Amino acid sequence: MNQELLLQLFIDKPGEYVSGENISQELGVSRTAIWKHIRKLEAAGYQFEASRRLGYRLLSIPDMLSVVKLENQLQGNIFGQHIHYFETVESTQNLARAAAEEGALEGTLFVAEQQVKGRGRMGRGWISPRGKGIWMSMVLRPSVPIHFAPQLTLLTAVALCRSLKRLTGLPIGIKWPNDLLIEGKKISGILLESAAEDERLRYVIAGIGISVNLEEADYPAELLEKATSLRISGQQKWSREEVIADFLKEWEQLYFLYQEQGFSPIVTLWEALSVSLGKTVRLTTPQGELVGIPIGLEESGAIRIQLEDGSIKPVFSAEMGEPL
Amino acid sequence: MNQELLLQLFIDKPGEYVSGENISQELGVSRTAIWKHIRKLEAAGYQFEASRRLGYRLLSIPDMLSVVKLENQLQGNIFGQHIHYFETVESTQNLARAAAEEGALEGTLFVAEQQVKGRGRMGRGWISPRGKGIWMSMVLRPSVPIHFAPQLTLLTAVALCRSLKRLTGLPIGIKWPNDLLIEGKKISGILLESAAEDERLRYVIAGIGISVNLEEADYPAELLEKATSLRISGQQKWSREEVIADFLKEWEQLYFLYQEQGFSPIVTLWEALSVSLGKTVRLTTPQGELVGIPIGLEESGAIRIQLEDGSIKPVFSAEMGEPL
User: Fold this and answer.
1) Do A53 and A75 share a domain, yes or no?
2) How far is A187 from chain B (nearest CA, A)?
3) List of E strands, chain B
4) Secondary structure (DSSP) of B63-99
């Protein structure tokens, strides 16, 4: 039996019960077969109400990404010309990496409704429930030496922050290097994985997770202290296609600006959006802990930390704690 | 039949013929079986002379790397504590990369007698015939940000150049960034592949190919213009175990020096060994061609090029041509 046809019967009669007998006649299948297909649709996110007397009624259809809608919004953009869309994956990052090794073009995008092994920074997990967020990875082949890879991390944070602020009006800021926060709670994760041969970047995979329409029930209780979604903070749902398309346009503009004019315009934009500057923080670096005040970005992507003795130290890599 | 036992019969009577009848009786196998095993030994690099009347005589045994000998020479060294030795592989680089993804420790070494898909810079091939060279890759987990990865390429060239010069007395120099040359001909290839997550290096695979005992017949004719081996240039064979062990000791010393004191002592050593400085060359960069005189290394690993107008430009990534 064609599941699409079964679904169409319900979509044609919004809110109404369709009796099993009716379906059975229309599609020429047994009542047991219908029941099995309803189960499958439920597993894919459709919600039904079943009544022994009246039959089945479609309550809600899952919020699925429309690749067609997304492609329409991305006409003229290089990023998003090749979209690979998946229902469920382990991690879009791993798919994109494998594709890049096989020669995937710059701008190729991997998007999934759900990740079962979503990855965050430093091997941490990343919650990626079905249909509620944007879990995607894109292939970059920037013509800059490995040296400049950390600049791309900061550029990505700037592009995403500018796009989300504009779309939602929410007070989103960047915590160094690339966390986006609303009132101290994390709204998004960015992870750039680079592969280089000597001083040449072979490719970079930019992984982007955006908690768009997650509800409080989607988070473990202890995470609600540190994480939020656009929906929780903005008290409305957002079109994921629109969020992706707007981000990709912003990203592409900044990426071209960067390739033409270098990192300094990005530094200016980053500093304007940063919530990390001017407050005393503790930094955990591979060389040990230090306390100081972040005062700006360096060209290299390092953050300039003013220490207690007034000296300034560039920090390339660290975990930054809450303001002290 | 045990091939080792067959071999032992010959090794016990160096230079002498062993008759088929004799072998047949000793090992209880047919003449055909003996012939098949001799063929297998020949395929593995053993050379025999066959006489219908006298039997077989062992002419030479292949030059196989002795891991035990190597381990003895590397006592107290971290690099080389875990040696994975292979007869034939596609590429030691790919093996090391897969192992690093699975968590292999710093200093883990992959060595092969032969590579059938040896890789050089920029996807080029690398000739790696059986038993004649050193084809190896090592896993590094340096505690420096991605930023500094190109410094490791230069450090590796310095370590290899110092070690090979000392061992062989040959006039070996470094062409930027990491080719080792004897009188303009390439003696070795170095390829560092990095994997990073944001600004953190996850691991680096250092691939090292050294043309130790290759003969002219091992090279395609057109390559002999640009390539040589320690044997061709020095007119003698060298112990590969000794070459590997000496390099790994030198490498480890410089690597620790680098982690303690930073890149500046390495710059001094590199500049002293370089054959690239002071001569006008053409550089092909991703941004186009330029002509100038290399005058030194920067802290970043970039080479400083003095242009015709006297200005100085750091070049991060380029192919450097012959002196003009």
Assistant:
1) no
2) 18
3) 17-18, 47-51, 55-60, 83-89, 109-115, 134-140, 172-175, 179-182, 185-197, 200-210, 281-285, 288-297, 303-307, 312-315, 319-323
4) ----HHHHHHHTTT-STTSSEEEEEEES-HHHHHHHH
Q: What is the CATH number of the domain that holds B11?
A: 1.10.10.10
Residues A108 and A56 in one domain: no
Q: What is the pLDDT of residues A178-192, one digit of tens each?
A: 899 999 999 999 999
Please check whether residues B269 and B165 belong to one and the same domain.
yes
User: Measured between alpha carbons, how far is B33 from B22 in angstroms, rounded to an integer?
Assistant: 13
Q: Which of A121, A145, A302 sits opposite B198 (nearest CB)?
A: A121
Enter the tokens of residue B133.
């060279």
Residues B233 and B312 in one domain: no
Domain end position, chosen among A40, A60, A80: A60
CATH number (domain holding residue A307): 2.30.30.100
- Residue B9: which domain range? 3-60
Indicate the helix (H) or strand (E) that contains A198: none
**Distance between CA atoms of B35 and B56, rounded to whole angstroms?**
10
Please count the structural domains in chain A: 3
User: Of B245, B193, B304, which is closest to residue B71 (Cα–Cα)?
Assistant: B245
Instruction: Please give the average pLDDT of every successive group of 10 residues along chain B, which has 324 residues.
Output: 80 86 88 89 84 88 84 88 91 95 95 88 79 94 89 96 97 94 94 93 96 91 91 95 96 95 95 94 90 93 93 91 86
- B221 and B239, same domain (yes or no): yes
Q: How far is A261 from chain B (nearest CA, A)?
A: 13
Nearest CB to A199 within list B195, B197, B301: B301
CATH number of the domain bearing residue B113 = 3.30.930.10
Interface of B to A at Cβ within 8 Å reads: 121-122, 143, 145-147, 149-150, 153, 177-178, 191-200, 286-287, 300-302, 316-317
> What six digits make up the tokens of A146?
């490995």
Nearest CA of chain A to the CA of B275: how many Å? 19
C-alpha–C-alpha distance, residues A131 and B58, integer Å:
71
Q: Among the three residues B273, B295, B310, which one is the final residue of a domain in this structure?
A: B273
**B178 and B125, same structural domain?**
yes
Round to whole Å and give the CA distance between A146 and A309.
33
**Cα-based distances in Å from A21 to A31, A124, A318, B31, B67:** 8, 51, 64, 81, 76
Please tell me which of the candidates B145, B153, B317 has its beta carbon nearest to residue A316: B145
Contact at CB, A317 and B199, closer than 8 angstroms: yes
- Check A198 against B153: CB less than 8 A apart: yes
Beta strands in A164-287 (DSSP E): 172-175, 179-182, 185-197, 200-210, 281-285
Residue among B200, B287, B317 whose CB faces A199 most closely: B317
Q: Provide the pLDDT for residue A116.
A: 87
Q: Using CB atoms within 10 Å of the CB of residue A181, give its burial: 0 to 12 exposed, 13 to 18 middle, 19+ buried.
A: buried
B158-188 pLDDT, tens per residue? 999 999 999 999 999 999 988 999 999 999 9
Residues of B in contact with A149 (CB under 8 A): 146, 196, 199
In contact, A208 and A190? CB cutoff 8 Å: yes
Do B32 and B83 have their domain in common?
A: no
User: Per-residue pLDDT tens for B135-149?
Assistant: 999 999 998 889 889
Check whether A169 has a pLDDT greater than 90: yes
> Do A207 and A236 share a structural domain?
yes
